[in-house]
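#structure-requests
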Amino acid sequence: MELEHGSNRRFLFGILLIVFGTLWMLVKLDILPDSLSQMVISWQSLIILIGLVTLINGNQISGWILILVGIVFMVPHFFDVPWEVRRLFWPMLLVAIGLVLLFRFTKSPGKIAGPGAKSMNFFDDFVIFGGREIVVNSQSLIGGKVTSIFGGSEYDLRNVTLSENGAVIDCVSIFGGAGFKIPPDWTVKNEVTTIFGAFTDKRGSILPDFQNLEKTLILRGFTAFGGIEIKNF
């Protein structure tokens, strides 16, 4: 099933590249009018393209936010937007981010073993203007949610056993970062969308000759002016 999803995503991404490349070619040939040329070759269209790619990768919330931001900034190219409306954009964006954080909280299927227990099969952490290190212990980890804004956090998963279906961790990092310490035999699939950020795998030469595909950690989400780091130490 995962291979089938991968093929579908590859197909959709190929269609996006063909459409964008064709439009760019029409711009170079002066076939498109100037108004459309400014729309196709712009940072707004780049944000929308990144949002579409994020949707294809399965990150619905991050994808729609990027698409919405790109569309909002593109509207003034076609319509005369009053200043009274434009000045509300940034406050509305903050409200939208707040709603997304609330949605992530209410959807969290957190499972904690008991009062005061350190073992959990799903973890949800939020860091703002600070940092901390958390040791996670689980015999069947299914995933987690990590949000860091102007802060950083590190999660030690070296004593964790993944569920039989692996685990999915959703990461949102804005002017912040998140680090994960994992066992060397885990397979990591990076599906994080980065804008002016980075995803770094520092395991490097200490990786074993082969990785166990049954122990797969999938990282999804969005990072802007921040980073996600993977290491074994």
